[in-house]
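Table S2 (continued). Query chain:
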Amino acid sequence: MGVNRNSPAEGPGAPGAAPLTAGPAGTPPVTDSGAALPDDAALLDDATLPTGAVPASGAGPAAGAVVAAGAVVAAEAPAASPAPPASPATSAAPATGTTAVPGADTAPGPSIAPGSGTVPGPGTVTAARGAGSAAGTGAAIDAVLAVDAGNSKTDVALVAADGTVLGTARGGGFRPPETGAERAVEALAALVARATAAAGGGPPRVRHVSACLANVDLPVEEREMTGVLRARGWGESVTVANDTFALLRAGVDDDGPRSGVAVVCGAGINCAGLAADGRTARFAAIGRVSGDWGGGGHLAEEALWWAARAADGRGEETALARALPAHFGLPDMAALIEALHLGHVPVERRHELVPVLFAVAAEGDPVARAVVARQAEEVVVMATAALTRLSLLDERTPVVLGGGVLAARHPLLDEEVHRLLARRAPKAEPRVVTAPPVLGAALLGLDRLGAPAAGYARLRRHFGTA
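Corresponding output:
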């Protein structure tokens, strides 16, 4: 999912948006007991991937080769057995709309030393301890480094090949369009160091880095980020995909086809689909310029827009004109507009208006209800478009719903999404995922290693979804 990169008049997502919950922004939760980290709220052309694979740009044709849009790339081995490593020389840049075979950028097997990486900064304050790293054996265990980096938060998990979560860490949002790729990965490196230190024992042998990242929406961005992560030497191979694919993997079954469609609606909105034969359907998801509407940032802007027009007489009456300023302890919209303009209410707090919007809608306000209905429409339009592009509209297919806005299961939105899906895609099977999306990134890593069924079950139990 990408941040809306358009002008304020076009409804951007709130930069650095925190989880979509009302009230003052709080500090991130700290977990150091081995429990799962809680979820805090929460490309263009179709391409073809190997069955069971996930889009990535850390692998592909020989250096310098170009894959034509819509082409079918070579299939890797099924998840039941590990895929053989490809030549280290294969790290080519696929053409727009195509993605090469994941993980072909192999290198000698590094081990991540505890404490490596940059010194954690503000926000990198969470770590969980998991069961061990072959203590007493002297041998490094095989592991996956899973990363889910969203607009509002980043989760890192170090997971053994048997599904044991060795260590986790949580930090702030991942926004390379604002900070630059290198700086964004510097903050990520701090989390990797913390997760590794939390694992204890000897450093594991990271067989694969499975990174599902927000704001990595286009092929050129995937290629750039793959190169940046590969240079860190965190694992033998690297797969980079948009974070929507982590949600999709978390929501589909482990013992069958990985096909399905996922719609994430958190700070922004995005959708991705994967067919059983490897074809994908994706969206650019960079704002109005790519045809997008919705997500928490946009909903907050819509609520403000309608409230401001109601207050000055240009628009119809709505309770939002009273509820929004009241949330910040202000008397009216004029005071709220001034506070937002002068920075007295930080832009990072605009996301707090989303639950206010839903509360006003639940009370029957026509304007607020219309905004919620429009969001439901956009969720279903994206899902049905992906299903249609993948020829899945007439097949029983999971439609995975996640992100802070959808995972909150606001009754009006949830009911309307299900109603519209039932009418337009009767065979779609909606599934709401509330587990941290890093679960999906880790499952993709286990797919890569050919983990046993017990490993998937163990990993899901850790995150409370088994």
